[in-house]
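A quick aside before the break. I want you to see a complete sequence-to-structure record at least once, exactly as it would be stored in a machine-readable document. Don't worry about memorizing anything.
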Amino acid sequence: MHGTPRLIVEILIRVVVLAVAGVLIYYGYINYLRGFGSFRLPSNTPIASLYAAIPLSGALIALFTIEQLVNGIRNGFDHPEPLEDAGDIPPVETRFQNRGQP
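That is the input. The structure line, written in tokens, reads:
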């Protein structure tokens, strides 16, 4: 897929990822705030210390998705894979070599 259809699909995919990141941020923050009511034993540290990773992850996902959107709109989403040069890899000897048995 190339051109305008690809641009539309790529932007749509990134918008869906942004929506999921927004849900992680919103509900993760609510869960984080509720975590101050429960404590881990025996240290008595709030469970919120574990739940803090959820909205943080959502924020990082949103950040990198916005970066992909900006770079994709500016430079295009189509980046062809570089061709591999088969001459760089030496051939592997797979024959069984029968050496003298002791």
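Two observations worth writing down. The helical segments are 4-34, 48-51, 53-75. The longest helix spans residues 4-34. We'll return to this after the break.
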